[in-house]
Write a structure and sequence with these properties.
By secondary structure, the chain is mainly alpha-helical. Helices cover 65% and strands 5% of the residues. Strands 1-2-3-4-5-6-7-8 form an eight-stranded parallel beta barrel, surrounded by eight helices.
């Protein structure tokens, strides 16, 4: 029987050469180099899926799937022979998918969508294998703790490393931005399948266990096939909170001490676990989930309160379980490690306060004071969770003090391995998560506050929105009283334009608490537009005159936080200009902080997609403006990025190690000096790229009818049907025609990725590079190319300037996931050849110049893992794109009969979900 993925599993038959810039020879090489273990997993999963499809839906469905698969593979081979053959092959595929009923097309789309979920698992499993082998060499791996420690010590001695560690802070903030297209049921099924793949990969298992694992695998794939891929009901903010809790429960809570221990082992070697750790708890987590109300009327004060309660429940349960587990194992007899007088007094106080409980515990732990006291601590955690006030802790600080008391006593008694082993892990967890898990951060638009203040100052009847704002501030106070100030004290102001926007929040807090006693508030300005980025330092200077800000600076040791918005700036300016202007803004902010003696933390509002500031995080950190990191990094993590980075412990550990090591290195004098010198040397080049790129981008988006054309050629209007988040796709009511300025950055990026263009990740860069190449050179006959002198200057900048290298490498990755032939078919739906030609001309220019400047013979030629992933996926993404094109064409033309509209809608949404899974990218 033909299997679903036989071509992929067997080698380069999956199609050669159509991803732009990836030549046939290179693609064949990538396919041939597919690791054998991954090839085995792909074959296994594909075979099982083929069996499931044939058994549940009939061999004829599998035959149709195979016909389409072979057709798209053949089309990729045809593309190497010229555009005419590629177009003819595309026409043949269009005829094939048009021959099926809508019901049949939906089943075929489901097959390819499920396949992508399985392929993602195989790639994830291979990455875990690679990570397990990465540190077996003689030299420390790149972007590792060991590499960072060695380089920093070589530069400034052990003292410089210790200095950076003392102030180190890495702060991921999870957001509910709707970029996770998969249902939670699908994610749960994939998690179970992941465990089965890991078990099957364990060659120590016996034949019976292997057979059982494979049986379970078939059962789980069958369940995944039968599970609806689309959400029936929309997500609520509470659903989003619980979804993020999965990452904490399944991975992060246990992962955090592993991160600290990995660094501890680098610093101490074999002494790790035998002496006090020099590693501070430098990780903190934040969350906007259930607290970000900017443009989302579904997030209310009640929702924010519920989010805090849910988070605390998970934090306390995690600490309680860990404390109880460690307590039960800590059977240290008091004669072998006599407790200190402080611990004896603490046990006596506990017996006086809770005599029956202590009697029960000591009866089960005779002569084991450490075990008894930790069991008592676990009971107190349970009481804190259930609100038993007589036994509960008043704060996480009290619990941490108890852990330190036990640790100190063990160390004083010589039981150092017990003091600095698992107990240290629990201490790290408590210090990192507290009783609140992640600090909730409220966000609201500055104009909403301005309207509320106008009502309050006039003494008029308050609108529901104003009442809601005041209630939100009251809820922040409630959260702080119950879980501590750290649980919720940041208030982010979207579209901050002046210090008055900061003052407005403090004034609103006065209205919410007219008798005083309001919450501690750190109001964070968010700068998003090009104009706001340029004015950021003047806004901060104005903030320094506000009494509330002055008080907080005094209380925090002059710490101040500023957020930079990557998404909206890229949507306004284009990806190249936004990147360059954000760099300049960071440099200006860093200089301002030195001038005003401020310890500045820049909060990077980056999306997962390159068009929203995404890309490899470690390299991005190392390219930041000099002085802008200084040992502190705060960054948003959202949607599919959360589960991609934290779904597996090994991958989560590697991600946090990469980011942390990059923060340490970016704070070194060597990296700061390098970035400063490069920025100065290439300033004129930067200006030319900025002007040229921004001009091209603004010309496109300001063309009459562009927004409507974009909505026609992409599934922009249909994306909301995926119900992947509680937030509307547009600010405001959403009624009427589409205006680009009202459209949020996520659907902007998401919709373009579906067209196979990824326009927000590269558009304008080609024009910017061309402008820079010709800067200062008299116009002449270029023979269609750029002058050699200009090309040489760009190549030098690419080698020596990390910011430009990051910009071009990210654009290259974005371009590598495009397909010009298919994209042209989407653009034709809009019946605007002028816009279609402009976009494709910029595409061709950008692709050509990126390759010329980088010196690559094809896109991502130097990234074998990514290139292999693209080779593996391209034909199957093509299949879904052709199915989506058929559905989109029918929707736009209104040709579908009324009785088939529901099926057509499902098909369209299913292909959107499938393409997102195949490209591993939404917004």
């Amino acid at each position: 029987m033909s299997t679903f993925v036989s071509g992929v599993a067997d080698g380069p038959a999956e199609g050669v050469g159509r991803t732009e810039g990836a030549g046939g020879t290179g693609r064949e090489r990538d396919s041939a180099e597919l690791p054998e273990a991954m090839r085995r997993d792909v074959r296994l999963l594909g075979d099982v899926l083929g069996e499931v499809i044939s058994e549940s839906a009939g061999a004829d469905l599998l035959a149709d799937v195979e016909r389409l698969r072979h057709a798209v593979i053949a089309a990729r081979s045809a593309a190497d022979r010229g555009s005419a053959e590629a177009a003819a092959a595309g026409d043949a595929i269009t005829e094939l998918v048009a021959s099926w009923s809508w019901e049949r097309a939906e089943l075929v789309a489901r097959a390819f969508t499920v396949y992508f979920h399985l392929i993602n698992l195989a790639e994830e499993q291979q990455r875990v294998r690679t990570l397990q082998l990465r540190d077996s060499g003689d030299r420390p791996p790149r972007e590792s703790f060991a590499d960072a420690a060695a380089r920093l010590t070589a530069e400034g001695g052990p003292g410089r490393l210790s200095e950076l560690l003392a102030g180190l802070r890495v702060h991921p903030v999870f957001t509910a931005h709707p970029t996770e297209a998969r249902r939670r049921a699908v994610v749960a099924s994939l998690r179970r399948l992941s465990g089965l793949l890991t078990s099957i990969d364990d060659h120590r298992a016996g034949a019976a266990q292997q057979a059982e694992d494979r049986r379970k695998l078939r059962e789980e794939v069958d369940l995944l096939w039968r599970t609806a891929q689309l959400r029936v009901a929309g997500m609520t903010p509470a659903d989003e909170v619980r979804s993020v809790m999965t990452a904490f429960d399944e991975t992060l809570f246990r992962l955090v001490p592993e991160v600290y221990r990995a660094l501890d082992q680098v610093l101490l070697g074999e002494a790790s676990g035998d002496v006090a750790s020099p590693v501070p708890p430098f990780l903190r987590f934040g969350s906007w989930v259930g607290a970000d109300r900017d443009g989302n009327p579904n997030v209310t004060a009640a929702v924010t309160r519920e989010a805090a309660v849910i988070q605390a429940e998970h934090a306390l349960r995690g600490l309680e379980a860990a404390c109880g587990r460690i307590a039960r194992a800590l059977t240290v007899y008091e004669d072998s490690a006599p407790p200190t007088a402080e611990l004896r007094r603490a046990l006596a106080a506990a017996a006086a306060n809770q005599p029956e409980l202590l009697a029960e515990i000591t009866a089960r732990s005779p002569g084991e004071p450490y075990r008894a006291y930790l069991l008592y601590a676990a009971e107190r955690l349970a009481a804190t969770r259930t609100r038993n006030i007589d036994l509960a802790y008043n704060s996480a600080a009290e619990f941490i003090a108890d852990l330190v008391l036990v640790q100190s006593s063990l160390a004083a008694a010589g039981a150092v391995r017990q003091a600095y082993g698992e107990l240290q892990h629990l201490l790290w967890q408590a210090e990192t998560f507290g009783f609140h898990l992640a600090s909730l951060e409220v966000r609201q638009h500055s104009q909403v506050h301005a309207r509320a203040l106008a009502e309050l100052r006039q003494g008029a009847a308050l609108s529901p929105m104003t009442e809601e704002i005041l209630e939100t501030i009251r809820v922040i106070g409630w959260i702080q009283r119950r879980y501590g100030t750290a649980a919720c004290h940041r208030y982010v102001i979207a579209f901050t334009t002046s210090a008055d926007d900061i003052a407005a929040v403090h004034e609103l807090a006065g209205y919410a608490f007219p008798d005083g006693g309001g919450p501690v508030l750190d109001v964070v300005p968010l700068f998003e537009s090009g104009e706001d980025l340029a004015n950021a330092t003047s806004v901060l200077t104005g903030m320094l005159s506000l009494p509330a800000v002055i008080a907080r600076l005094d209380a925090t040791g002059r710490h101040l936080e500023v957020m930079l918005g990557y998404s909206d700036s890229a949507k306004e300016l284009g990806p190249a200009s936004a990147t360059l202007r954000l760099f300049d803004a960071q440099a200006e902010l860093a200089a301002w902080s030195v001038e005003h003696d401020i310890k500045l933390t820049l909060f990077h509002g980056r999306g997962g997609a390159i068009g929203r500031g995404g890309g490899p995080a470690g390299r991005a950190v190392l390219a930041q403006a000099p002085g802008s990191v200084d040992g502190r990094l705060k960054v948003t993590e959202q949607g599919e990025v959360i589960f991609a980075r934290y779904g597996r412990p090994a991958i989560g550990l590697r991600h946090l190690e990469q980011v942390t090591s990059s923060v340490l290195l970016a704070s070194s004098h060597a990296v700061a000096d390098r970035n400063a010198a490069a920025a100065a040397a290439f300033h004129e080049l930067q200006t030319a790229i900025d002007d040229g790129a921004r001009g091209a981008f603004r010309t496109l988006v300001e063309t009459d009818g562009f927004a409507g054309w974009f909505a026609t050629v992409s599934p922009l209007q249909e994306i909301g049907g995926l119900r992947i988040g509680s937030r509307p796709a547009r600010r405001g009511s959403g009624a009427g025609s589409i205006r680009l300025e009202d459209l949020r950055a996520i659907p902007w990026v998401f919709a373009w990725s579906q067209t196979r263009l990824n326009l927000p990740g590269w558009y304008g860069l080609g024009s910017g590079l061309a402008a820079a190449a010709w800067a200062g050179i008299p116009a002449g006959d270029s023979d269609g190319g750029i002058p050699a002198e200009g090309l040489a200057a760009l190549r030098r900048a690419y080698r020596e300037w990390p910011l430009l290298a990051t910009l071009l490498d990210n654009a290259e990755m974005s371009l590598a996931k495009t397909d010009r032939e298919i994209a042209a078919r989407y653009l034709a739906l809009g019946d605007r050849p002028d816009l279609a030609d402009r976009v494709l001309a910029e595409y061709d220019l950008t692709r050509r110049l990126v390759l010329e400047v980088t010196g690559h013979d094809r896109l991502v030629a130097d990234r074998s893992v990514l290139s292999r992933a693209i080779v593996l996926r391209d034909p199957y993404v093509d299949a879904l794109s052709y199915l989506q094109l058929r559905a989109l064409t029918a929707v736009r033309s209104g040709d579908a009969p009324d009785n088939e509209q529901a099926t057509l809608d499902r098909l369209l949404l299913l292909t959107v979900s499938g393409v997102a899974a195949g490209l591993q990218n939404t917004g």
